[in-house]
Design brief:
It is a single chain. The protein has helices at about 1-5, 25-30, 45-55, 70-80, 90-105, 110-125, 135-145, 150-160, 165-175, 180-190, and strands at about 35, 60-65, 85. By secondary structure, it is mainly α. Helix 3 (about 45-55) links the parallel strand 1 and strand 2. A 3-stranded parallel beta sheet has the order 1-2-3, sandwiched between helices.
Length: about 200
């Protein structure tokens, strides 16, 4: 990827990292115009990384490139603030075009992903089912932060509560929504109109 980027006349790879630990420092050091982000990484994954970057750099362009095409991960990445979403089997030249497109303000997506997003938005825009899942006000507040891609620590800071309290609330949210992950909770919440 680095060789390919550096071979382009108008592109340069300014940094490569194994995961999103210290991602804000890495962005500070390399000053990228576009971040090309994977999802499945150790320690701090790409969806969490997008949320962390967005907390300081709301305008920085972030393009997801991943093997994941399941609805939960697609929607969680977009809700966290990704500007585009490509699958890793995307042709290299199409990837270069997508990087240019996202830098110019576009939202490139692999056709399969675009179709999924349209289907999910269509489901979301159906009349509300009026389910509230018996979430408390605090749980609803935390769910909204989850949908924005906030990490547990960021939610704790925003709500002025401890990390362990956030963890307890999120465990309750998972139980009430009958999901097993942040992306599952966010996807269901969006479909049911629990968050905007």
């Amino acid at each position: 990827m680095k060789v390919l980027l550096n071979a382009m006349e108008d592109m340069e790879c300014v940094g490569m990292f194994n995961d999103c630990r210290d991602v804000l420092q890495k962005v500070d050091d390399t000053k990228p115009d576009v971040v090309l982000m994977d999802i499945d990484m150790p320690h701090v994954n790409g969806i969490e990384g997008v949320g962390i970057i967005r907390s300081k750099y709301p305008e920085l362009k972030i393009l997801m490139q991943t093997v994941f095409e399941d609805d939960d991960k697609v929607f969680a990445a977009i809700c966290a603030g990704a500007d585009g979403y490509l699958l890793k089997q995307t042709n290299p030249l199409e990837l270069m075009d997508a990087i240019s497109t996202v830098q110019e303000g576009g939202a490139p997506m692999t056709p399969l992903i675009a179709r999924k997003v349209l289907q999910l938005c269509s489901k979301q825009n159906k009349p509300a089912t009026q389910k509230d899942f018996d979430l408390t006000k605090r749980e609803q507040e935390i769910l909204k932060f989850m949908a924005k891609g906030y990490s547990y620590k960021m939610i704790a800071d925003e709500c002025c509560i401890s990390y362990s309290t956030v963890n307890s609330h999120i465990t309750n949210i998972y139980s009430k929504l009958q999901v097993q992950s942040v992306s599952g909770a966010v996807s269901l919440a969006l479909r049911e109109g629990l968050v905007e």
